[in-house]
Structures are given as C-alpha cells and as structure tokens.
C-alpha cells in the first residue's frame, strides 16, 4: 500500500503510527501538570505560613505532609479502576481521555486560588481527571499495534519518553516560576499546559479513529457486566468466603485505623472480589494462567513504586534540608533535582528498549517478568547512594548532591526495566473485554505503592533516614531475587505470550485493538 493511499490512522512516522505521537504529546502535557504539582506539594505543605520568599505555605509538619502526599498520590492512581470501568462499559477510552483532560484543566485552575477549600477541591478534581485519563490513554497506545508486533514495546518506550519529557519540563521550570512569583503561580502553570494537552488531543482525532472507541455490550455475546460478576459472587462459596474475610478485616481496619483506611480497605475488598470472579469466569486455562501472572506482577509494581516514590516525599524533603545544593554560587531549587529522573529517562529509554529487543531476537532472556524483577534490584541499589548521603550528613551536617544524582540514575534504569514494560505486558496478557480494567488495576497497584511510600516516609521521623534507606535497599534486592528464582514457572503460565513477537510488515500492523489470545 503506497503512503499516499494510506488513511490518516494508518500513516507512520519513524516507523510508528502517527497516533502514537498524538497520545505522546497529550500525555506529555498531562504529566507536566501532574509532576509539576507533585514536585511542589510536600514543599508547599511544609513551608511556614510566613517568612518564606516563595509565599506562605500551609505550615504543616513533615509527617502530616507526607501522610497527605501518600493519600493523594495513591488516590490519583486508584481512581484508574473506576476510570477503566467507565471506559469499558459506558463511554470508551477515547472519550474517557477527553473528559479526564477537561476535569484536570478545572482542577489545576482551582488550585491557583489561595483558600484552603480550593486546595482540597483542586486535589480532588485532579484525582478524578487522572483516574479517567491515565489508564485509558495507555490502553489506546496498545490498541495501535497488532498482537505479536515487536514494535509494541518500543512504542510504549517512546510513549514513556513523552511522560518523562513532561516531567522534565515541569521540574525544570516550575521551581523557577515559584521562586519568582510564588506557589500558586506554579499551580497555575500546570493548568495552562494541561489546556495545551487537551487542544492537542482534540486536534489529533483523525489519527485515532480505530482505537479507543466504545463497543456496546450487544456487539459481544460473551460480554459480562461487572454487576453480573458481583451477583455471581453469592453463588460462589470459595470466592464469597474470601470476600467475607476481607470485609471483616476492612471493618476491623475502620475501627482501629480510622475511617479513611476503612474506606480504602473496603474499596480494595470490592476490587479483589471482582478480580476473583473474573478469574473464575475466564473460559480457558490459558486465560486463567495469564490473569494470575498479571496479578503476581502487580506485587512487583507495588514494591517498586513504594520505594521509588520516595522521590516526591522523603527524598524531596531530604534534598531541601540536608543537601548542599550550591553550584558555582547558585543554590539549585529543590524541585529541579526531580528533573534528573526525567532527564535520564529521555537519554536512556530508547537505548534500554533496543538492548532488550536485540537480546530477545538473539534468543537470550528478555521476558517482561525478568526485566521487572531486575528493575526492582537496580532501583534498590540506587538507595545505597542515599545510605551514603545519610552517613555523610550524620558525620558532617550536610551531604553532597552527587549522591542524589547517582541515586536518581539507578532509579531511572530500574524504572525503564519495569514501568513501560509492565504497561506493554498488560496489553499482551489481558483479555480484551477487561483490558481497561486491568490497566486500571495496574495503576491502582502503582497508587498503593505511592501510599506505601508515604507510610515509609512518615516513619523516617521515628527511625531516621539512614535506617529507612538501608531497609529499602535490603528489601527490594531480596524481592527482585525471589521473582528471578521463580521466573521459569511464571513464564510457563504466560503460555508463550511473548515468544511469537517479531518484526511485522506495515500491512500486518494497522488498526488493531488489543487481542484476546
């Protein structure tokens, strides 16, 4: 087929569908808005109400700020589950991304206001907007490729560069904007770029005509509603028993830990019950085995982000108070150190993806599960440099910024081995009718990791940074090694989902949604 005869959604740029770059730019600006605010959040909450050149903050303690940070970053991702359900059952991924972007624009706009009600309202709107946009735009990326297309992993890595280019631009500029015009100008900048992302997405619809469309349940005789699955729970003794145990544990958690944790546990009980029923309803053992592998891989996701997300919390505060940030007579804003992660990703992402692709074509070990386990280990070693930083601070009262640079470098290499790989892995193994839901579960696992990060960060007030950083190193390396030890049985349960990947011709690779086999 000649290039001139191709329809817009079939056209390619640099060997990838043009639709990938529309989603790339949309996600880039959305991530600018998110990471820009994420970099400011803990610092804004802990800044005193008077006497700071950046304007008044909320004056909270580190522990209070890290607690809210953990809840906020968790909910941003947990809301991906209802966001995925809404897309699957009501509006489709394409419209879900559109509505999510609109809500995000409203949320960041409200955060410009200085009242405390605006702070909480803005955070709430951002949570809702990301919940609709985040899982569904990733599913749309997967829908650009046919099953078995080796370009899929590289496409997700390119998409991941968009995420981190947005993060890089945000962390390089937001800190300077805040230093010059104050906290709420930084929040306002996040809103402006989200509007740019929304306009880009609307303008690029002609390249996305074959992905993200809502498919009514009447078109699929095998379609099962989530309501039907929940109703079948009561006629499934084993699943009902486990759901009952989780419900009792949730109520105990409500009583002992407060209503917020109680609601979280009840929500997780509902999701766990749904996942148990989906597993039961899958009609082949291959689907059941792959579904189980996906759930086990989410354990690695939770652990990875529980450690990695110290970047926006504990490591952010450590940079602010314990690190010598002077460079040639200029004090580097704390927020700018978070640009290291994004910058390293942009430098190394395609190279890391190419190394794995070449290993796979040569028949060497390059499975997604192996990459994810190795990513946890590499990221864990990054905290070894934070151990050195904490030791230097305990000895001299300050620590060199080089430790942060090295830590972020190792964190980045680890992230490249797990995050884009996990996104691609889901699109390979998830049954098509549960595609957005499983993407939502992935982001919910990421959210739980963020909450774990907040809890771990809070404990530094009691145990100290040195103990926390050392514990993270030990725990992550052990977990990564355990998954490598059970790699062979886990790969057998995928039933060769990744073994048939190859380079496809253009005619083979156009206009496919997620495959269900």
Give a brief outline of the structure.
The chain is built from 17 helices and 6 strands. It has about 525 residues and is an all-alpha fold. A hairpin with a 2-residue loop joins strand 1 and strand 2.
Structural overview:
This protein has 517 residues and is mainly alpha-helical. The radius of gyration is 22 Å and the shape is globular. It contains 17 helices and 6 strands. A hairpin with a 2-residue loop joins strand 1 (12-13) and strand 2 (16-17). It has helices spanning 18-46, 62-78, 80-111, 116-142, 151-181, 183-203, 226-233, 237-257, 259-281, 285-308, 314-322, 339-361, 368-396, 402-429, 435-463, 465-485, 487-493, and strands at residues 12-13, 16-17, 323-324, 326-327, 330-331, 399-400. 50% of the residues are buried. The strands form 3 sheets. A two-stranded antiparallel sheet has the order 1-2.
Distinct helical segment count: 17
Rg over C-alpha atoms, rounded to the nearest angstrom: 22 Å
Strand percentage lies at under 5%
What topology, given as strand order, has the largest sheet? 1-2
Q: How would you spell out the order of helices and strands?
A: EEHHHHHHHHHHHEEEHHEHHHH
Distance between the termini: 28 Å
Q: Please tell me the overall pLDDT.
A: 83
Uncertain regions spanning at least 5 consecutive residues? 504-517
Main beta-sheet annotation: 2 strands, antiparallel
Oligomeric composition of the shown chains: single chain
């Amino acid at each position: 087929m000649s290039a001139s005869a191709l329809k817009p959604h079939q056209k390619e740029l640099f060997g990838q569908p043009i639709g990938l770059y529309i989603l790339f730019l949309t996600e880039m600006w959305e991530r600018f808005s998110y990471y820009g605010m994420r970099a400011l959040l803990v610092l804004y909450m802990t800044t005193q109400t008077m006497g700071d050149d950046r304007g008044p903050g909320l004056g909270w303690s580190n522990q209070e700020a890290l607690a809210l940070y953990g809840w906020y970053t968790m909910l941003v991702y947990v809301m991906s589950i209802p966001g995925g359900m809404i897309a699957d059952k009501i509006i489709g991924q394409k419209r879900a991304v559109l509505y999510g972007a609109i809500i995000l624009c409203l949320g960041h706009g409200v955060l410009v206001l200085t009242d405390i009600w605006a702070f909480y309202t803005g955070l709430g709107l951002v949570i809702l907007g990301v919940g609709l946009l985040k899982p569904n735009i990733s599913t749309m990326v997967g829908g650009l490729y046919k099953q078995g297309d080796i370009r899929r992993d590289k496409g997700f890595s390119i998409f991941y560069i968009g995420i981190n280019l947005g993060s890089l631009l945000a962390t390089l500029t937001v800190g300077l904007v805040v230093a010059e015009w104050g906290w709420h100008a930084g929040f306002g900048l996040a809103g402006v770029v989200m509007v740019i992302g929304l306009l880009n997405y609307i303008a690029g619809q002609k390249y996305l005509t074959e992905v993200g469309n809502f498919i009514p349940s009447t078109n699929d005789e095998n379609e099962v509603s989530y309501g039907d699955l929940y109703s079948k729970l009561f006629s499934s003794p084993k699943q009902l028993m486990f759901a009952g145990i989780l419900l009792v544990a949730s109520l105990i958690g409500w009583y002992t830990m407060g209503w917020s944790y109680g609601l979280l546990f009840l929500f997780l009980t509902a999701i766990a019950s749904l996942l148990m029923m989906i597993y039961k309803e899958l009609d082949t053992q291959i689907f059941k085995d792959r579904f189980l592998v996906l759930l086990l891989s989410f354990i690695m996701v939770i652990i990875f982000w529980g450690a990695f997300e110290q970047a926006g919390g504990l490591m952010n505060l450590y940079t602010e108070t314990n690190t010598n940030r002077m460079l040639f007579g200029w004090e580097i804003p704390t927020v700018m150190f978070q640009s290291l992660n994004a910058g390293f990703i942009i430098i190394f992402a395609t190279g890391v993806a190419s190394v794995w692709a070449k290993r796979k074509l040569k028949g060497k070990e390059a499975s997604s599960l192996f990459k994810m386990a190795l990513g946890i280990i590499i990221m864990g070693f990054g905290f070894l440099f934070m151990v050195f930083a904490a030791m230097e601070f305990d000895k001299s009262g300050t620590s060199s910024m080089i430790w942060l640079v090295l830590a972020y470098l190792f964190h980045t290499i680890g992230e490249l081995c797990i995050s884009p790989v996990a996104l691609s892995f889901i699109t390979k193994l998830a049954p098509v009718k549960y595609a957005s839901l499983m993407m939502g579960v992935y982001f919910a696992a990421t959210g739980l990791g963020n909450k774990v990060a907040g809890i771990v960060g809070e404990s530094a007030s009691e145990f100290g940074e040195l103990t926390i950083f050392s514990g993270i190193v030990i725990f992550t390396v052990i977990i990564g090694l355990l998954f490598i030890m059970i790699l062979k049985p886990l790969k057998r349960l995928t039933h060769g989902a990744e073994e048939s990947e190859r380079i496809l011709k253009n005619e083979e690779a156009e206009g496919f949604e997620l495959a269900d086999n």
